[in-house]
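Researcher: Can you fold this with 5-O-phosphono-beta-D-ribofuranosylamine in place?
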Amino acid sequence: PKILVLASGSGTNLQALIDASRERDFPGQIVAVGSNQPGAFALERAAQANLETFVVNHRNFGSRDEFDAALMAEILRHAPDLIVLAGFMRILTTDFVRAFRGRMLNIHPSLLPKYTGLKTHQRALEAGDSVHGVSIHFVTEELDGGPVIAQAEVAIASDDTPESLAEKVQEKEHVLYPIVVRWFCEGRVQLGSDYVMFDGQPL
Ligand code: GRF
């Protein structure tokens, strides 16, 4: 399967996927990396790995619809089987999400359904939680709300700060995302009507 990664930031998750995709038995191929941020370090990482890159800068568009249409056009050129959102910090329109239903994954730094949206580490600390973590889910119309495929937990220490916690969660992200992408490429994980199918069984 052909994988297209979208990233807005430093791209450490992209890097984890690039590294995994270099393993001899990896079942998919990263065909392109796109960003809405011209200066994203993720693009640098992609170029280093000789991957094709593209930028669709949201600042150049008057509306979300126009941005999404331009993004869609770039994506379709690569005909991906899977879109991996790896720190892609734009909310996608309903039409866009529907067009890639069951073929788009996102990583979110919380144990969903807890803490959708931003500042998840700070919110977990403020709530006095003892565990936090990361979720990987299918993207549906609901922001950070699609069916969860896998999660990894992190114990919160009494001296954790949002930064230290983010670091611990990121370590888990870099392990978990390549595993889930591999499952998808092997056909082991699929989106049912509103739940995840794993090895042919509802999860
Ligand atoms: C990750 O923490 C991811 O969970 C989030 O954005 C961050 C992206 O980091 N939503 P990176 O660009 O992969 O380094």
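Model: Folded with 5-O-phosphono-beta-D-ribofuranosylamine in place. The chain has six helices and ten strands.
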